[in-house]
């Protein structure tokens, strides 16, 4: 699942995975959990994430490799936030070479909409759960909601600039593949979810869709 920050990748990835009983693998979630835990991975990633920059390719590739080796990913998975560079793209091709097909769904949203979404986004201070607009407490643990440190306006613009520079080029690579699909993310969540399901079904039939 690809798309710029604020496109809804996390929400849609989680929904798609939950409805099909397959794991959602989010490098961002794994890193944020490490930051919350204060472990070595979290300490090394925190300053980079707070500045809106991306952590190193080697670190992210290692996280994904370890996660894909778990038993629950053997029959399918959803990747949220990976790959974000051509180096990560090449690594992913090697990681899933024996599995097929790799369906790539890009969620498109206008930049002005992205900025407004990100400025209003809130997460749980305790567990990192992403809250929908208007929600006042975490649905998972009841914890307080706060703005993510990388969602202030300055960092938001920096993240979008980095996305265009480093991540958007992988779309040009994936567009040449017959398993690439693009959906309109500037709709209701239900409409986006339906379009994603249809996009995946057009590649794999009823296997995951």
| Content of β-strand | 5-15%
Counted up, domains total 1
**Which spans of ≥5 residues are poorly predicted at pLDDT below 50?**
none
State the separation between the terminal residues, measured CA to CA: 14 Å
Mean pLDDT comes to 87
Helix content: 40-55%
Q: Helices and strands, in N-to-C order?
A: HEHHHEHEHEEEHEH
Tertiary shape: globular
Oligomer designation: single chain
Which CATH architecture? 3-Layer(aba) Sandwich
Structural class, judged by helices and strands? mainly alpha
Q: Count the strands?
A: 7
Outline the biggest β-sheet: 3 strands, antiparallel
Instruction: Give the strand order of the largest sheet, numbering strands 1, 2, ... along the chain.
Output: 5-4-6
CATH class: Alpha Beta
CATH superfamily: P-loop containing nucleotide triphosphate hydrolases
CATH fold annotation: Rossmann fold
Q: Treating each run of at least 4 consecutive H or I residues as one helix, how many helices?
A: 8
């Amino acid at each position: 699942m690809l798309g710029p920050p604020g496109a809804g990748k996390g929400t849609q990835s989680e929904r798609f995975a939950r409805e099909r009983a397959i794991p959602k693998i989010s490098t961002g979630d794994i890193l944020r959990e490490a930051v919350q835990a204060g472990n070595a991975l979290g300490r090394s990633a925190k300053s980079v994430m707070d500045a809106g920059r991306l952590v190193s390719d080697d670190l992210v590739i290692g996280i994904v490799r370890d996660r894909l080796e778990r038993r629950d990913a053997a029959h399918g998975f959803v990747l949220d936030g990976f790959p974000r560079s051509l180096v990560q793209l090449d690594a992913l091709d090697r990681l899933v070479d024996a599995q097929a097909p790799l369906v790539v769904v890009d969620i498109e949203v206008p930049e002005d909409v992205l900025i407004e979404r990100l400025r209003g986004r809130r997460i749980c201070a305790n567990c990192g759960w992403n809250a929908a607009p208007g929600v006042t407490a975490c649905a998972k643990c009841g914890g307080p909601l706060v703005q993510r440190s990388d969602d202030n306006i300055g960092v938001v613009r920096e993240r979008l600039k980095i996305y265009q520079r480093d991540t958007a080029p992988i779309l040009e690579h994936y567009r040449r593949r017959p398993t690439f699909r693009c959906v309109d993310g500037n709709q209701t969540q239900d409409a986006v979810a339906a379009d994603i399901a249809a996009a995946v079904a057009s590649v794999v039939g009823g296997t995951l869709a």
